[in-house]
Design brief:
Elements (H helix, E strand, L loop, with lengths): L9 E4 L4 H11 L3 E3 L2 E3 L6 E5 L6 H4 L2 H10 L4 E4 L10 H10 L6 H6 L9 H7 L10 H23 L3 H9 L6 E4 L20 E4 L1 H5 L6 H6 L21
Parallel strand pairs: 1-4, 1-6, 4-5, 6-7
Antiparallel strand pairs: 2-3
Length: 246
Amino acid sequence: MTRFNDQRIVTLNCGLGRDSLTMLCLLVEGELIAQGRKIGPEDVDAVVFSDTGAEWPHTMALLEDVRDICYDHGIRFFMLRKPDAELCQTWEQTKERAWIHNRWTTLEEKANEGGYHLRAQIFEDYKSRQTVVSLGKGDCTDNHKIQPIRRLINDLSIERFGKKNRQWSAAVRNGETVPHITLIGYAADEASRIKTPKNAPKFVTERFPLVEMGIDKASEQPILERHGLGHVRKSGCYGCPFQPAS
């Protein structure tokens, strides 16, 4: 049987919260379902966490556990760090640094040194633009999570297939290949969050395994406990207006 990622890049977006870690636990068990088939560690190219620079301490404390799980199961893990503070005092400086200093020898080194982020940590980013996080706009997720991960997908695609995201989009439009896949951890009881933007790129598509499997938030606890992660809490930026008041 062919691997799920034989003809494309497959990444699992891991925000280090309960939903995405439930997805990771099922993946290492070989029980995660995407597009109607069970997938395991050999079916993904990478598990990816993109740091916004404003994550909860309890979220960051999980990093080593997640690294160990991925290492033990032969999964490539990337933490997309923010650049050092002195190199990104403003958004313009960050953008310039990321484009000019393309000096990394491995993708892991690039991720560790902040090469996938074009913006400073999230509060510095908003401060430099003299604006605030908006409930309706959602550009914080796009700029600090989605786009850095898509830049990694670009490099993974070059590494495996010799094609950048733009070239992959053209191949998809011409019917020569299939889109890359990003696995997103939405629980089944929040399926209403799934939306396909009108300007969605051709090179990648999103899949929601927990929704496909019917796993709601109440069903996640025993799965997490099997891997010693029963203590995991909700993740997200500590300044996010979507966070509960508590």
